[in-house]
Amino acid sequence: MRVALVTGVCPPGECGVGDYTACLDKTLRAGGVESHVIASDDWNVSGVLRVRRSLCEQNFDIVHIEYPTVGFGHKLGPQVLSLLRGCVVTIHEASQRHFLRKLALFPFSFRPEHIIFTSRFERQFATTWVPWVSRISSVIPVPSNIRAFAQERQRALNEILYFGLITPGKGLEQVLELSRLIKSYGLPLTVRIIGRAPGKHVDYLERLRSSGGEDLPVTWDLDLSEDQVAERLASSSIAYLPYPDGASERRATLKAALANGVAVITTRGLQTPRNLEGLVAFCTAPAEALAAALFLLDHPNERARLVRNGDRYVGQCTWERIAELHLGIYRNLLSLCRGRDTLRVEGVQ
Fold it and tell me: Model pTM?
């Protein structure tokens, strides 16, 4: 089976969907699939025609668009490609997008071979807008892009960790407020921020770093490799991940922390599924998160309970399992295609 995973150009670590695509490609190839990431930086009309021509020349069995990515930007080239030929489309985000960006998702609903959503909430949201896609869509959850660190590590009990892309709207202001509370109470704790700032958000990173001066108890671990990130996670006990819209099934950073045995303090939102109850601590504000962190640091049995529950949760969402779910869709589509070709050969229209 030859599979094309189509994205915009995405530097590693600067686009969650781009990193997801790279992990899916790697896992598919490990399972014997001839998978290729087709990453173009030209999504105007002529660029789309070139991508389409290249896909036809390479005779892929499945063309799968991963949307959105940093490399697609605001261009509608991926939508045009999905209209020019049958494609599988994964829509990683629909409900949180600006109204005009939501409208830009409509062309994907016209003639897809299959649409994949990353959570039940996202699929339900989309099918209220375009109910006709319910019969050709399914949910495949997002695993962690960071695998569990292979070796057991001594876990720090004097820090609270944040992990994720450093961009606006990720809750980093709440993380820095937590560090201010630690300083004001004179607590022997530090906050460790692990992340990477995409090029267009470097100024935002610098504003964050300068907002507290040199006195806040914050350690910045920037631009680490995947192995280094996994090692840092495996060396931590507590993480604070204050997602502005709440923890959800599509949060790969949450799953990375859980996969590496970290007890997570996070926020609840409309997308937060019930199955996260009992495996994370929910808090609404930094002061509440600090109290929860101190409780977990002082109560190792409760911390261990959250870690055990988190491990069971992420164990149901491995990359091998996700690749197999994709293969099930691909095989079904190829079977349907062969059936249609047989009918045409036999003269049945």
Answer: 0.86
